[in-house]
Amino acid sequence: MNEIEQRLGNINSQIRRAEIEAGRDKGCVQLLAVSKTKPVADIAAAYHLGQRHFGESYVQEALRKQPALTANNITWHFIGPIQSNKTKAIATNFSWVHSVDRLKIAKRLSEQRPENLPALNICLQINISGEETKSGVLLNELPQLIEEIINLPNIQLRGVMAIPELQTDYEMQRKPYQQLFQAVRQLNRPELDTFSFGMSGDLKAAIAEGSTIVRIGTALFGARSYPKSS
Fold it and tell me: What homologous superfamily is domain 3-21+29-220 in, according to CATH?
């Protein structure tokens, strides 16, 4: 058993245990393998072990890797900050975007999504802890942003993404996720079925509070990397 196989098995076991402890349905939480800065060989190895969803944060890096993996039925997620001059490449080469935080970006993705492709799935990034150094809309701005973009063509608003302030205490980890989950549910929009939050350090807390996608990188692929690009 190689390292990626062992790590992938361990992560999936952690997810399943957290689902059981939270009283949630088996398989309701999807693992998104964060493959930014990781080589094609590692992505291919995880794919052949059954992993299908991969997240990238740097457009040019992703565009270099994707052609080498076209034989694989990978679902690509863009999870990084979005520059206006990169929206066309994102709209053309990804199935999901987790980091939409303003109307301008949503409009560009909508306009630039090729007509021959299915609607682009998007999540709105929420700055749930109100940190000045992080991207995302504040929670009280979410309803207005939803109203502004919900009917844009060629994109499908699926839910929200958040990266709270780092906490080590389990109950403190749960609080922002609980707040976000409840706020979205109170909007009474059943189409918002995706909650992209939780990483290796707070996976259990995130799943306890409704996460449907957890993003795991280093714990799966290790620290090996090559220089990032935009």
Answer: Alanine racemase (3.20.20.10)
